[in-house]
């Protein structure tokens, strides 16, 4: 079990390093040649789609099998289930991470508001400006985290279904899985 996790973690780490290298090497040398923010966003989204299509989602699970051996129906079903289970756990972990960040930002803002209420009378105008600036920035971060969490909750089931469809269409599993549907 620990070996499987290490293999998956190593595979994910290698992919992240590969992606980071691509993103770093894609930076323009001359700032005047920089694309507009909208162009950057479009290029980034296209890049993410390209990486997603190139990503071999079964690789960490296929590594567990003896090389060159043909898959049995049972192994194909097990691989599909493990892949979907792993993906579901990653979706849950991402939601939990966003939720934890949201709660942390909210708690820090509440603490700062409590401090302000206790010290409001003795604050200098500069301190009050700093407080208002902090509140504004914190509210911005909280709204962004809330939007991210809502978007994740909206897209997670769609992503799960998309992966399930990809697995059924994958030539390594497809024919064996069709016998079970």
UniProtKB/TrEMBL annotation:
Coiled coil: none annotated. Residues 69-176 form the Dynein regulatory complex subunit 7 C-terminal domain. Pfam families: DRC7_C. This is Dynein regulatory complex subunit 7. It comes from Saguinus oedipus (Cotton-top tamarin).
